[in-house]
Write a structure and sequence with these properties.
single chain; 22 strands
Length: about 500
């Protein structure tokens, strides 16, 4: 039995993710031993180098003296072969004096690009960056191709960085498709048809006055309480546990206030263990650490009625997951591992599992439900992001809502169409849905209508929701007006009125 097959069968033992008997299948293989093999990539023959590859074979080579030069080879893949499947793009690279690229995401490129279909821009996943000089090293890119993908392409090359890089033995492998169990945990579960919880994401203000405002004026009955990183050291188990300890102190101070003003709290693991930032830590010991921490949290808070649920990881992102690492689990497997750890000590508090792809609604196209009772599935909604994040991070666009965005009309009907993966997931598996974050920057023209349309869709399908965010970054603050230059909190704004009107339904 191969290492791949043993690994995937072991993952299936965890629960409902039972792997089919099929081996991983290589869809693309390029050894670049000949110019004809290099020519399978667009312009590949121009960069073919005989005798400079691994073990004296052929390869492709890129060499530039500065940050203003770039070359990229492309090979298209039939999307029908990979839709709805997990794939690994792997290749060997060697570098000599590879310098800093003009922008962090440029430089050496081993990348897979795909689109999500209508109303959504392309997505790209690429291998980690490594600068300087190094001998032949294998790099991997893991990603899931959505079922709606209409185009898929592979890219290798060097973009806007000085130095020399060689590529050899590039492969694209389709991984076995997991099977979903009969889901005994949801068989007798009624489908939630009515929204019950409407609230906000926690921000910087957790004072008694802030809780009083939320409870008595806003009418919020739920707060997604962020366990933040505090710029702490999450690269070691001790560092991550210290981050959790500090957040527990904040949570314990908030619980009496939440109880006083009728607000339930959802523990949101916003700090990621092991790797820093958004990418998941794929090492088995890192995955075990998070499961252990959640078991401890559940044991501590299982009898606290103010705690509404456990959001086990904020915006999980699988780009750096490496299937070839023995014992490592993808997000579906890791989520189940954590959920089972929680259920060892807490049989009833809801467990919130976000979709991979940073919590994007399109992640429901490849999320698999787990056979653990009391699980709620979640996504975050900022679509289209060019509108919701306009004039953020260097963007200078001014876009209206409703209106034509990226050549397509965006209104409530368009937003509902983008949310279809969650709608279909809910109906297919008979599970509840929670929208943990949604927003638009306060200066976005029509932001109040965007929020109203989002909420109307959530309410239509009975989804609980929390607005991002309450008194956090000024760009999201619903108590500040639409003038980007004026950060004064004025209280009443059109966006705030939309939220308060919706939360009136929380009152008896």
């Amino acid at each position: 039995m191969s290492r791949w097959k043993k690994m995937w069968m072991a993952a299936g033992i965890l629960g409902c993710l039972v792997v089919s008997a099929a081996e991983p299948e290589v869809l693309v293989s390029n050894n670049f031993d000949t110019a004809a093999d290099a020519a399978r990539w667009q312009d590949g023959e121009k960069y073919f180098q005989p005798g400079e590859g691994r073990n004296g074979s052929g390869c492709v080579k890129f060499a530039f003296s500065g940050q203003d030069q770039a070359a990229m080879l492309t090979r298209h893949v039939d999307p029908a072969l990979v839709r709805g499947r997990a794939v690994v793009l792997a290749g060997w690279m060697k570098a000599e004096n590879l310098g800093q690229p003009k922008v962090s995401y440029l430089g050496s490129k081993l990348m897979i690009v795909f689109n999500y279909g209508e109303n959504v821009s392309d997505n790209a996943d690429q291998s980690p960056k490594k600068l300087g000089s190094y001998d032949w090293t294998r790099f991997e890119v893991y990603c899931r191709i959505p079922a709606s993908a209409k185009a898929v392409a592979l890219h290798i090359g060097l973009q806007n960085a000085p130095g020399t890089v060689w590529f050899d033995d590039v492969t694209l492998t389709r991984l076995p498709e997991p099977k979903v169990s009969a889901l005994a945990s949801t068989r007798n579960q009624p489908l939630q048809k009515t929204t019950r919880f409407r609230g906000v994401m926690s921000g910087d203000d957790l004072s008694p006055a802030a809780f009083r405002e939320l409870g008595e004026v806003w009418g919020a009955n739920l707060m997604r309480f962020q366990f933040l990183g505090f710029r702490g050291d999450n690269s070691t188990p001790e560092g991550f546990r210290e981050i959790v300890r500090r957040n527990r102190e904040r949570l314990d101070r908030a619980i009496p206030l939440a109880r006083k003003y009728g607000i339930r709290l959802l523990i949101d693991m916003h700090a990621h263990p092991g790797e820093g930032g958004r990418p998941l830590g794929w090492k088995p010991e890192t995955q075990q650490l998070l499961a252990d921490v959640w078991r401890e949290l559940a044991a501590a808070y299982k009898d606290e009625p103010v705690i509404w649920g456990y959001d086990i990881l904020n915006e999980p992102y699988e780009t750096n997951y490496a299937p070839s690492v023995a014992g490592s689990l993808d997000w579906n497997g890791w989520a189940e591992k954590i959920a089972r750890a929680i259920r060892e000590v807490d049989p009833k508090t809801p467990i919130i599992v976000e979709s991979a792809g940073a919590g994007n609604v399109l992640g429901f196209e490849y999320l698999r439900p787990i056979d653990v009772p009391g699980v709620i599935y979640s996504f975050h909604f900022y679509n289209p992001q060019v509108y919701t994040h306009q004039n953020v991070g260097g963007s200078t666009q001014a876009l209206d809502y409703p209106g034509v965005i990226q050549g397509k009309m965006h209104d409530r009907a368009a937003l509902e169409k983008i949310m279809l993966p969650a709608i279909e997931f809910q109906k297919k598996y008979n599970v509840p849905i929670f929208v943990g974050e949604f927003s638009a920057v306060r200066w976005a023209p029509g932001a109040e209508q965007y929020l109203a349309d989002c909420i109307a869709i959530f309410e239509k399908y009975g989804w609980d929701w929390t607005y991002h965010a309450y008194r956090e970054w000024e760009g999201w603050d619903a108590e500040i007006g639409s003038d980007k230059a004026n950060q004064a909190r004025v209280g009443d704004t059109p966006r705030r009125r939309v939220l308060l009107d919706a939360m009136k339904q929380n009152r008896p």
